[in-house]
Amino acid sequence: MPQPDDEIAPAGRSERAPRPSVQTLDRGLRLLELIAMPGVPLSLAELAAQMRLHRSIVYRLLRTLQDHQLVVHTPQGYVLGSRVQSLGRRAMPVLQQIAKPEIAKLAARVGLTAFLVVRDGEEAVTLVSVEVESARSRAVYTPGDRHPLTVGSPGIAMLAAEPPREGERPEVAQARAAGYAATTGEVIPGLATISAPVTSAPGHPVAAVSIAYTVERPTRPEVTAVLDTARVITGRLRTALATGAVVPGAG
Q: Could you say which architecture CATH assigns to the domain 4-85?
């Protein structure tokens, strides 16, 4: 007989009700996300308070996550384990394999941090990042970082690759006309980004190629480099899809 922590939440009667979920799995995943968010160790008491669960329940969840090397307990608190990074490297393998060398070339070409962002629902998530430390760039975008799709040039570039939506930001329409998006300080204060979309088919964005810098305006060669890289990755992605590759979100 299932224990209270393992109950399956009943399906609602309305169409708007959430889908059934395994409670323990749901709690474990929420706990993992909670540990990942601040980037600093969190104690059992802090995690229990934020989860709004008894310490004994959170402790059992943590022990399970530790057994799978997803969480590590340090004297300062709980942090992500090595297994998380290993799993992250396996996310969207086809797109990573295509994008990594091109993002590295882009970073070397412009001397700035370059990264590839993918869409996850209404959020933009960094998948690949090649960091360059310079007076004009900072190492700030790392795989797994996420922010709302409507904020920052990566999300705006992806939205601009879709048909127009009612009520969309003016910056989306501007990016649609220009072929790329540029924003300053929307995700990280003092940091600007340029992004161009990667599409699996016309009107279907999968990702965005981006660079980060600390100057007020991008140069034309930098914009060209981002557009060139997005075109190369788009072409290789479409070729891979045509030969049977599976890429989540590519349609």
A: Orthogonal Bundle (1.10)
